[in-house]
Amino acid sequence: MELLSNQPMYQTVPEKYIFPPEKRVVNDIILHSVNFPVIDLRGGRVDAEGWCEIIGEIMKAGKEFGFFQVINHGIPEKTISDMLQVCDEFFKMPAEEKAQYYSNDLSKPFLLNSSTTYDKSETRYWRDYLRLVCYPIEEVIDSWPEKPENFRAVLSEYTLQVRELSSKLLKLIAEGLGLDKDYFGGDFSTGKTQMNINHYPPCPDPSLTMGLLPHCDRHLITLLAQGTVSGLQARYMEGWINVEPIPNAFVINFGHQLEIITNGLLKSVEHRAVTNSAIARTSIATLIIPKTDCLIAPAKELLNENNPPKYKEFIFSEFIKAYSAASASREDVLEFFKLN
Ligand code: OGA
Ligand code: NI
Question: Which contiguous run of DSSP H or E holds residue 70?
């Protein structure tokens, strides 16, 4: 397998990474003046009705953007910086050291791959990545690399912290929806937690390539650490917003399941990663996933005459099949589950 991170810096972009003009980013509108929501999770006034203002901010951001960043979220800076560093170190290891992890077998709990695409076309993404199961830790830790030396310890700590933050956020979201605060605590969020550790080396011509094509995430909710290098863009109206890195912040976005459970109130929004010519970028996406046999449907508590269900009931594993068949296209995949 060819890894981008094993190559000496290319002078020009090899053919197989060059997207046809209609998939390139150059003509897209980038909405520089839109304020992407940043939510401070520390404190937060509680009003006379016991309503915490953070919940209001999350709901507002969630309805308008489907995306927001959180700061003062309680995860120590060191946990995040150690994790980003150990991931960078992994990709910097010699090719021979990494070769044992290469695999196309998605059933593996830990694998290294490069440049695969969602859309089954031949053009390859400008991205190397690790895809791993991170929780329950004791079930998967033996599949994690022993090098870099502290990889396992750092990943364990990061996993625990990020899962805790995900529970906190899901409780706030449930409250914001008027549901029991533990609504998402069971099968909706207790499938095996997965991580995508994305590594985008510098690219000689970012106008020709993509780190990740536009897609929506297929599960419940994603918590992304993106270090200090920008590259993530979220769809907004007729254009795209650059999600500017804030040191130690997490970018939160809703997956398809949260959109369906909220009957479309909280949208799963398309996003993509663009490349740059200057500096490598590493991002860590933690994916909170329902149990495979979890029953998904719009929450009954949210439905009424004015808000009839937009989606049918299904088992999460059926969704995953449809997602692959629809090549991750937002509208195509939702079409399978729409009621009309
Ligand atoms: C993902 C993803 C964005 C990024 O892994 O699903 O959208 O910035 N990553 O790397
Ligand atoms: Ni994504």
Answer: strand 67-71
